[in-house]
Design brief:
The protein is an alpha/beta fold and 347 residues long. It is 41% helix and 18% strand.
Length: 347
């Protein structure tokens, strides 16, 4: 009987391993975030251990020689799920028939560059990519773009939650609050859940632990009760998360890549497979119809739950005055950025 069951299991495994490959695009594929990202995607950490993948690597023409080196490394990894690697500098090739797109590539912020200058450069990039998604990708494509790709650059109904809060020149903020709370409580980061990032990915983002839980010695406790330090939670904790990207740049003289790549992988895996029962995560999503008083014409980070590859804002959380002020402040910044982006688009 055991032999029969084992044989049936192997047959099922063999059939599942013959699943149709999905096409996954990574833009900015010659960059440092992509370099930390591609291996995890290709070996099955994101879309599953039985899902074959065709990786499409898009970058600008001057980066194609570097991209050739990335392709060689992927080939040398001998990853069984990786069926094909397609390097290209052409959007009609890169975005064709996509199942998933990870839009990493954009212009990084340079020393002395004003925020509006960075926004202007990237508005043009993502306007092009939004149009390419609409024209070439599958209607069901799931996308994790950088946070400042607002709704005016996305084809309606096509783009899944942004990979937010993660950025191209900042630490993946969604990864920062959990370990900060965990270290404070002396537990591993997987023992902390339901920390929220509200708003923008900038120094106004608001990491909120009022609804978070910490598992301490097998017992689930409210984060405020587990930490036992309200001053830290309302002060240094928030500023540490808000300024983590700058701290990483100051320390390593480069923007964060490993943590950003990890957050992108986690984000797309959550989109693909859904969130755990009783848990929510933070994602930058379209604010239309939200119950938290946030202007609707924004991409804003909310607590969300995901089922069947569809996200839904987790409604009904009580918001105190401290949180309300923080949430409104980051919304105000996003409104200003949206209006600036719209001015650039109209020029």
């Amino acid at each position: 009987m055991l032999t029969l069951l084992t044989s049936m299991y192997l047959v099922v495994r063999a059939v599942s391993s013959q699943a149709e490959p999905i096409r996954v695009l990574v833009t900015g594929a010659a960059g440092q975030i992509a370099y930390s990202l591609l291996y995890s995607i290709a070996k099955g950490d994101v879309f599953g251990k039985d899902q074959p993948i065709i990786l499409v690597l898009l970058d600008i023409p001057p980066m194609l020689p570097v991209l050739d080196g990335v392709v060689m490394e992927l080939q040398d990894c001998a990853l069984p799920l990786l069926r094909e690697v397609i390097p290209t500098d052409k959007v009609e090739v890169g975005f064709k028939d996509l199942d998933a797109a990870i839009l990493v590539g954009s212009m990084p912020r340079k020393e002395g560059m004003e925020r509006k200058d960075l926004l202007k450069a990237n508005v043009a990039i993502f306007k092009t990519q939004g149009a390419a998604l609409d024209k070439y990708a599958k209607k069901t494509v799931k996308v994790t773009p950088p946070p400042r790709l607002d709704r005016h650059h996305r084809p309606p109904g096509r783009v899944a939650p942004a990979a937010f809060p993660s950025d191209l020149n900042d630490s993946a903020a969604v990864s920062v609050p959990h370990p900060q709370v965990a270290m404070r409580c002396g537990v591993s980061s997987d023992k902390v859940k339901n920390v929220i990032i509200w708003g923008n990915h900038s120094s106004t983002q608001y990491p909120d632990v009022h609804h978070a839980k910490v598992n301490v010695h097998g017992s689930e406790t409210a984060a405020y009760d587990a930490v036992k330090d309200e001053a830290w939670l309302r002060g240094d904790f928030i500023s540490t998360v808000q300024l983590r990207g700058a701290a990483v740049i100051k320390a390593r003289k480069l923007s964060s890549a490993m943590s950003a790549a990890k957050a992108i992988c986690d984000h797309m895996r959550d989109i693909w497979f859904g969130t755990k029962e009783g848990e929510f995560i933070s994602m930058g999503v379209y604010a239309g119809g939200n119950s938290y008083g946030i202007p609707e014409d924004l991409i804003y980070s909310f607590p969300v739950q995901i089922k069947n590859k569809t996200w839904k804002v987790f409604d009904g959380l009580p918001i105190n005055d401290f949180s309300r002020a923080k949430m409104d402040a980051t919304a105000a910044e996003l409104v200003e950025e949206r209006d600036t982006a719209m001015d650039f688009l109209s020029q």
